[in-house]
Amino acid sequence: MSMDLLAYVPLLLRATGTTLWLSWLAVLIGVVGGTLLALLRISRWRTLRILALLYTEFFRSIPILIVMFFSYFGMPLLLGVDLSPFAAATIALALHASSTMSEVVRAGIQSVGRGQWEAAQSSGMGYIQVMRHIIGPQAIRVVLPPSVGILITTVKESSLASVIGYIELTRTGLLIRESTDGGFAPLLALAFLYFLINYAISLGGGALERRFHIGRRSDLVGAMA
Amino acid sequence: MTPVLRLNSMTKRFGARTILDGISMSVVPGEIVCFIGPSGTGKSTLLRCVNGLEGIQGGEIIFEGQRVEAHARSIAAVRKRVGMIFQHFNLYPHLTALQNVMLAPVVVHKEPKAVVEERARALFEKVRLSHRIDAYPSQLSGGEQQRVAIARALAANPHLLMFDEPTSALDPETVGDVLAVMRDLAQEGRTMLVVTHEIRFAADVGTRMVFVDKGQIVEDADPREMLANPKTDRARQFLNSIHA
């Protein structure tokens, strides 16, 4: 049996790549969308604030699987658009990731004190300049840790795409299990691979966090020690 | 002399509360106007209205011939020529002292980095912090941070400097360093508005003292004149209370 499974290793590795690609793409869209949503959430216009809030609350509250079913089975019926399982899964995961990210980014922006805005504005900077040079670099320290968490969650949730027939890591493992003797080994292999991916993301996130902690109190302590 | 700044019955309200009630005054180049008065009487708000951090509800503010409108695009042009120093410094914690000073000239005024850096280094000398140029704000004492903030405000060659209680958040032993720098600036003939509780500094350095109470200018006179001989009871009471 273990010999059997070894033969499937290349297949599992390729499927790992597929899962990573799907999750990465969804989170990338989620970060961009979530940032835009966060800016709407704190904008001066009430209507935009409310729309962004509704979006966030809606997609945060609905199971991803249901969103996936809607985008895969519902879109052809409602809009006549046929989506591949990959596209449907990406959309569903991205909708969810963006709704979670928007809260994280909003908290990050709001963690930067009013005094920073005022100092930057007083020097003549416009909104985009303040965001880019002052608020963004400070907010990212707050945003980064939960973002890593969202990426990890998305990797795990991407296994739901197997339900609409997308052959990613989980689906591949289950197929291998069916075509071999149905033992636990393929499931263990799956668990191990997911762990590997997410542990790597975790380590990478930690390294990034340390990079962005420039100018913090901890540096002072470090410099004095 | 044409005034740098003119306030015409400026009124500021927060909801139903009137913070500034018909303030009128002019400031000509080279004047050092010290605003004194009890806490919560609108002195800081007055400065914040001048560079549009707060909008006004009545009257007008004219800076170098241009109307100041807090939420209009034109406000950026005003802010480029007005330097502001805050009570709590508000340095950018993710940037070094040098980067703090260089940011606005490079990003807002689009000056070449090399030119700005040269000027910035000279400014650090002026505020006596050349040795701390690469430190982050968290590594600086309050007094040092405030001097970096002054250098930051000077970096854009402002026509007007506004100090909002620059020494109120400082340890007593670092207040002197900041005041010394402000004295130097005064001697250069810069135009300054200073909200302060440092009466001695106001008397020594100020060319004009404005006593503000309950949102109104109660007295506006030569500093020594006002200290020696306040014209109003309210000013007399206030000055007695802080001399004690």
How would you describe this structure to a colleague?
The complex is a heterodimer of chains A (225) and B (244). By secondary structure, chain A is mainly alpha-helical. Chain A has helices at 2-7, 9-41, 46-61, 64-79, 85-111, 114-122, 127-157, 169-179, 185-211, 217-224. In chain A, helix 2 (9-41) runs antiparallel to helix 3. Chain B is of the alpha/beta class and 244 residues long. Chain B has helices at residues 43-50, 75-79, 97-107, 113-126, 142-154, 172-187, 199-205, 223-228, 233-243, and strands at 5-14, 17-27, 32-36, 58-63, 66-67, 82-85, 160-164, 192-195, 208-213, 216-221. In chain B, helix 3 (97-107) packs across helix 4 and helix 5 packs parallel to helix 6. The relative contact order of chain B is 0.17. The mean pLDDT of chain B is 93. Classes of the chains: A mainly alpha (225), B alpha/beta (244). The A-B interface holds A 113, 115-116, 118-126, 129, 133-134, 137-138, 214-217, 219-220, 223 and B 51, 53, 76-77, 79-80, 82-84, 86, 88, 90-96, 103-104, 107-109, 136-139, 152, 156.
Q: Which percent range describes the beta-strand content of chain A?
A: under 5%
**Helix share of residues of chain B?**
25-40%
Largest sheet of chain B: 6 strands, mixed
Instruction: Summarize the main sheet of chain A.
Output: none
Largest interface: A-B, 24 and 29 residues
Radius of gyration of chain B: 18 Å
Number of strands of chain B: 10
What does the average pLDDT of chain A come to?
89
Order the strands across the largest sheet of chain B as they lie in space. 6-7-8-3-9-10
The CA-CA distance between the termini of chain A, in Å, is 56 Å
Overall spatial form of chain A: flat
Question: Which structural category fits the helices and strands of chain A?
Answer: mainly alpha
Shape by Cα distribution of chain B: globular
- What is the alpha-carbon Rg of chain A in Å? 21 Å
Q: How much is the average pLDDT of chain B?
A: 93
In the predicted model, the low-confidence regions of chain A spanning at least 5 consecutive residues are 217-225
How many β-strands of chain A, per DSSP?
A: 0
